[in-house]
Hints:
Blueprint: H1 6-15, H2 19-23, H3 60-71, H4 123-131, E1 149-150, E2 156-160, H5 165-170, H6 177-189, E3 197-201, H7 219-236, E4 240-244, H8 246-252, E5 268-271, E6 274-279, H9 282-287, H10 292-305
Parallel strand pairs: 2-3, 2-4, 4-6
Antiparallel strand pairs: 1-3, 5-6
Helix pairs in contact: 1-3, 1-6
Uracil binds next to loops.
Amino acid sequence: MQTFDSHNRQRVLHELGLGPMWLLRDAEPAIPVAVVETRFEPVIVPAPVPEPAMAGAGSPVKSAWSELEVEKSKNLPEVQPVAPVVENTSEPDAWLVQEIVPDMPTEDMSQTSQEPAITTLSWDELQPMVESCRQCGLCQGRKKAVFGTGDQQARWLFVGEGPGYNENLQGLPFVGAAGQLLDNMLKSLGVPRGEQSYIANIVKCRPTDAQGKDRPPTADEIAACLPYLHRQIALIKPQIIVALGKTAAVSLLDMDLETPVGQLRGKVHQFKGIPVVASYHPAYLLRKPADKAKAWADLCLAIKAIPAG
Ligand code: URA
């Protein structure tokens, strides 16, 4: 099992932008809030309790909070505010609607039986298949498929929901403000993007609504795309998977979208023998920085869940 010393814990909290919050417990949080991608809802409803849901006495979260308070006299460097967001200013409620059905192409998009089963593909075969995939209507609006990025033998796999505006243009996952926060989380865990970590999404093409705005993927789109992620997982063989947001968690764990949030966070799930921890989507954390404490608890749980050896 990995250990996570006090220095690293402080670093994680700092990278997550938690430092000033602890210092100003009785005041308004000093962290600038950059509101961006509003489609992501919390995995768990924030509870008005003083301690994070998973923070029992003696838990890593609680001790980290205490340590950080001590740290206020030690001149921690200034927390850099997350860059302001420009993309997606649509109404939050719109993203709660899961039933939006995209315009389906009229032609038959099913792949032929001649193509090799996805479960046998190598990395070099899988990526072009994803990039030319026509298994669902999302391919119609695709500029670039977002295959995933990182260390192909990563210990940590982070799974998001699906590409947004910028990701669709660049073909890379998490390139916006939420990605900046995710990068900080990875760095603080010692697994910066590309080193011991891999980032992928449940769907590889950007889901948009009739107005061209981001939306969550439908059940059919998820079902069409999941085999690619499953193959990526089989190739990577990560030791821990962190599901970022409810869509990622329920899709990966094959749970109903209506699964109560309490059944997702705070426990170690399994995907084919690999531990899975559900946490918040970084875009949600940008909107609700107070819940970064719970995200920290999730990362602590993930560290503990990594198999020994
Ligand atoms: N949100 C996601 O879930 N994935 C991305 O790649 C970008 C934003």
